[in-house]
Amino acid sequence: MHLKNLGRLSCRLTAMALLGLVAAPMTGQAQQGGSDLTFTSWTGPYMRSQMLGFVRPYEDQTGKSVFVEHYAGGIGEIRDQVESANVIWDVVDLTQADSLRACEEGLLEPLDDIRLPNGVDGTPFNEDFVDGALNECGVGVIVWATAYAYRTDAFIDVPNTIADFFNTKKFPGRRAIRNDPTVVMEWALMADGVPRNEVYSTLETPEGVKRALKVMERIRPGLQVWDNGREPVRLLNAGDVVMSSIWATTGATASREEGARFEVVWDGRVIELDLFGIPKGSRNKQEAIEFIRYASSSESLAHMVEYLPNGPTRKSSLTLLSDEVLAQLPNNPAKADELLIRSDADWWSKNHAALEEAFDAWFTDPGRQGASGTVR
């Protein structure tokens, strides 16, 4: 079992519960009437932006209840529900790679014939979404990025490149990374001098994987892993680590909070997408489609971004945002001169399983276990 599946929490909330009201939990069977649906996404500030950006407005406009669950990503839980004929999630927020992988495995309902609202400026919807935001089983939500952050009191000369993340001689101290091979393996190769346009072709070879793991070995002593987007914030502010990978917009927002002790480095950030998907066999498919139509409109995506500045997947949404919000987007053209790489979701959909196995084997190597078996 992959490490990210250990200790995973899944709690069912309703929008009413988030307002402080008590509501009885609903099961998938209780939703057969079709008046309600379950939306599953990532917890923390991102979920808050979705709740305020389009979940509550959708409830207010339609009079329907949306039950909200959170998860830590991946497609394992969707696979379990579909294979057991017990599908209780209706709409799921997936990374682009997971969307493609789940679609290929037949775990998602086809959405290639969905009719979405045109852009607020009249642009046909199929021209309004950024590249990759529409696929056979998915409709785009956000453009986001993973960057890294460092403790502001840890160094005199501060890190400012992706190579610095792996330079423990110049920048000593513990690191933290997300519990997943994505991003950190691209970073390792980029830090070792591999050109951006050769990262995935290199990583596809056994030699490339070994090369990435060799670079990652530099940060392995004391390495910590995280699943939840707020964990890097807590680790950095508490001084448990001096550097951590971090979801860029969560980190940039949290770095401005009172008492924050870290800054985000944008160099080397990896740009990705999230998409809506409907698990195969949802008994509320039509309601799920209506929810996606509402949530993926120009206005809904712009409204969501106002609460957490991820990039909207519709170009027309940008015209609805203030200059202040635009400046904070991870795909802001003003940051184009800094090194970045666009995650190859199609490549990851085909290679994630193999690299996940290599990552887990590297991370759990007995050579880095203490006497009690706990990770040092």
Structure description:
Helices cover 34% and strands 18% of the residues. With 376 residues, it is of the alpha/beta class. It has two domains: 3-143 and 273-331, D-Maltodextrin-Binding Protein, domain 2, CATH 3.40.190.10; 144-271 and 336-368, Periplasmic binding protein-like II (D-Maltodextrin-Binding Protein, domain 2), CATH 3.40.190.10. Helix 2 (45-62) packs across helix 13, helix 4 (96-104) packs across helix 15 and helix 7 packs across helix 9. Residues 1-34 and 368-376 have low confidence and may be disordered.
Q: How many structural domains are formed by the residues?
A: 2
Number of strands: 12
Structural class: alpha/beta
CATH C-level class of the largest domain is Alpha Beta
Fraction in beta strands: 15-25%
The CATH homology group name of the largest domain: Periplasmic binding protein-like II
> What letter string, H or E per element, gives the SSE order?
EHEHEHEHHEEHEHHHEHEHEHHEHEH
Low-confidence stretches: 1-34, 368-376
Alpha-carbon Rg, integer: 21 Å
Shape: globular
Give me the number of helical elements. 15
Mean pLDDT: 88
How would you characterize the largest beta sheet? 12 strands, mixed
Q: Which fold name is given in CATH as the topology of the largest domain? A: D-Maltodextrin-Binding Protein, domain 2
User: Helix content range of the residues, please?
Assistant: 25-40%
Distance between the termini: 21 Å
Q: Which CATH architecture of the largest domain is right?
A: 3-Layer(aba) Sandwich
